[in-house]
């Protein structure tokens, strides 16, 4: 299909296979979605939508991604399910917390820099405030008998959640011989005495390239979302409902018209677009593109008109029935100057703070910088990496890693906020000339700044190149190896936290904490019998541990 369409072009007969809308140049179409409004969302709408996700986003990355999809795709209809799945697949291969990156990417797609800024801030700040309060007051109440039981119940619930996460991730990856071997090697490298999480991820990537290249079943990408069925599922649904055939055909024609209009109204100088899924070729239609409008002989007036909203080209589509309205966003890529400014805002304060304070602050900054650059594998992998570094340097006790995860699970926001909790205690335990409260607050702010700013930078900078590189022959096995290695690291983290929670040492009256073991077994049986959300499991673990301490004395 030609890239330039003359203003008087008439498209008659069956339409050919249309190109997919991908980000290939600053003026190329970035998204085709169904919307109930003609214009980009207002600031108030963005605050309400992403504020809801930030305040109610419990349950870790999976629960937050599901909530974000319900708000953005199902309720607001700012994105379609397939575009959302593309964003999710992009965020899973980037370093950093994928849920926060997905919110940032979604905000960018619907409202540019304004949307990305609001989405990232509202997704992170509510949970960050809660974690900061918990970290600042932790030692005030966790030292008593009741506080100790609460902390122990929190640890037990985290151990059970990690076990459930290992099982779910293994099922999702469909591990076989090669993938299982990569996961086992990564687990050995991540466990003591090596405790080398970065080395485990590196070996996973290399082993993925070497031994998993010829195994398509083990290098498959993120599973297709249930809300975005493929062509086969769509065909089966059409066969099952013959009465809706005429309506489905009309919608197919309108979808084809949308893509045709998008290609016709693309500004000059745009690059060619890659191939895409084909629409029904046997559905006849006739469309006329004239003076920036799309006309259908069977409708009254123009189907679409192009205009600009807040610097973003918008093609507002009116369906012939006069009912629902759809829109096509002509989103621009982030400007290089904007990305450079974001990178400077991330790096410059860290360098100045490390040079000013030195000592533990400089070392903490270095570890957080490593995580920001190479923290592949998701939040659990990042917590395992930082936890090993903090325990090895005697910043925190091993049991505090489980406590940090428990606090992050119990509060809204990304699970990687556990790093904020650990960083708070890392500096509060050695405050230097300042008070423990001020030193801990500086550590919490340092962790949030060092993790979330680069995460936003990566997702905005990688959106365009990802579309071109996602089908590269070496990338699929590389990221498959990283995913398998992440499973091994997650298993190692769960094992270490279980030992720190249950083992009392050879010098104790009992080798194993009986009360914690009973709590773990009860919570595990509940998870097997009935799936429970993370906050509910945490509350149950705390309540059960308090009851055992009061009535059984364990």
Short description:
The protein is of the alpha+beta class and 554 residues long. The protein is built from 18 helices and 7 strands.
Could you characterize the architecture of this molecule?
The protein is of the alpha+beta class and 554 residues long. Strands 1-3-4-5-6-7-2 form a seven-stranded antiparallel sheet, with helices on both faces. The N terminus is likely disordered.
| Average pLDDT over all residues | 76
Largest sheet: 7 strands, antiparallel
* Weakly predicted, low-confidence segments: 1-38, 221-331
| C-alpha geometry | globular
Separation of the first and last Cα atoms: 74 Å
Key terms:
554 residues, alpha+beta, 7-stranded antiparallel sheet, 7 strands, 62% helix, globular
Task: Record the SSE blueprint.
Elements: E1 10-14, E2 31-34, H1 43-56, H2 60-75, H3 81-91, H4 98-141, H5 145-173, H6 177-190, H7 197-211, H8 231-240, H9 245-264, E3 284-290, E4 293-295, E5 302-309, E6 312-318, E7 325-330, H10 336-357, H11 359-374, H12 379-392, H13 398-410, H14 418-428, H15 436-469, H16 475-502, H17 514-529, H18 534-552
Antiparallel strand pairs: 1-3, 2-7, 3-4, 4-5, 5-6, 6-7
């Amino acid at each position: 299909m030609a890239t330039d369409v003359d203003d008087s072009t008439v498209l008659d007969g069956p339409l050919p296979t249309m190109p997919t809308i991908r980000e290939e140049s600053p003026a190329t179409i970035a998204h085709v979605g169904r919307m109930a409004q003609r214009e980009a969302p207002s600031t108030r709408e963005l605050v309400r939508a992403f504020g809801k996700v930030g305040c109610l986003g419990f349950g870790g990355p999976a629960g937050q991604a599901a909530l974000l999809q319900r708000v953005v795709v199902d309720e607001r209809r700012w994105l379609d399910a397939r575009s959302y799945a593309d964003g999710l697949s992009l965020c899973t291969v980037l370093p950093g917390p994928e849920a926060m990156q997905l919110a940032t990417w979604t905000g960018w797609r619907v409202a540019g820099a304004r949307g990305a800024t609001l989405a990232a801030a509202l997704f992170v700040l509510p949970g960050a405030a809660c974690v900061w309060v918990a970290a600042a007051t932790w030692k005030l109440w966790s030292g008593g008998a009741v506080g100790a039981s609460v902390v122990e119940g929190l640890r037990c619930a985290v151990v059970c959640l990690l076990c459930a996460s290992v099982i779910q991730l293994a099922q999702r990856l469909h591990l076989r011989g090669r993938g299982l071997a990569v996961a086992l090697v990564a687990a050995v490298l991540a466990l003591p005495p090596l405790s080398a999480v970065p080395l485990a991820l590196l070996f996973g990537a290399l082993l993925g390239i070497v031994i998993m290249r010829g195994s398509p079943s083990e290098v498959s990408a993120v599973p297709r979302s249930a809300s975005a069925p493929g062509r086969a599922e769509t065909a089966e649904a059409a066969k099952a409902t013959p009465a809706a055939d005429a309506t489905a055909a009309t919608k197919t024609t309108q979808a084809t018209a949308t893509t045709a209009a998008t290609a016709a109204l693309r500004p000059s100088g745009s690059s060619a677009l890659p191939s895409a899924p084909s629409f029904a070729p046997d559905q006849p239609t006739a469309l006329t593109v004239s003076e920036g409008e799309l006309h259908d002989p069977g409708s009254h007036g123009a189907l679409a008109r192009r205009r600009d909203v807040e610097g973003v080209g918008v093609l507002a589509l009116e369906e012939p029935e006069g009912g629902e309205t759809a829109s096509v966003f002509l989103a621009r890529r982030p400007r290089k100057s904007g990305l450079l400014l974001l990178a400077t805002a991330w790096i410059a304060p860290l360098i100045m703070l490390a040079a000013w304070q030195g000592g533990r602050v400089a070392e903490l900054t270095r570890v957080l910088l490593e995580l920001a650059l190479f923290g592949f594998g998701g939040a659990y992998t990042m917590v395992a990496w930082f936890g090993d570094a903090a325990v090895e340097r005697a910043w925190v006790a091993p049991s505090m890693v489980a406590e940090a995860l428990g606090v992050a699970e119990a509060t809204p926001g990304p699970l990687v906020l556990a790093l904020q909790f650990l960083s708070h205690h890392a500096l509060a335990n050695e405050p230097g000339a300042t008070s423990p409260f001020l030193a801990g607050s500086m550590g919490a702010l340092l962790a949030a700044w060092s993790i979330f700013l680069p995460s936003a930078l990566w997702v905005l900078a990688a959106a365009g190149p990802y579309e071109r590189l996602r089908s590269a022959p070496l990338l699929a096995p590389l990221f498959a190896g990283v995913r398998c290695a992440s499973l091994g690291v997650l298993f190692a983290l769960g094992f270490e936290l279980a030992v720190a929670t249950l083992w009392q040492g050879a010098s104790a009256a009992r080798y194993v904490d009986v009360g914690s073991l009973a709590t773990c077994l009860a919570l595990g049986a509940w998870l097997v019998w009935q799936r429970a959300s993370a906050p509910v499991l945490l509350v149950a673990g705390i309540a059960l541990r308090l009851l055992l301490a009061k009535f059984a004395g364990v």
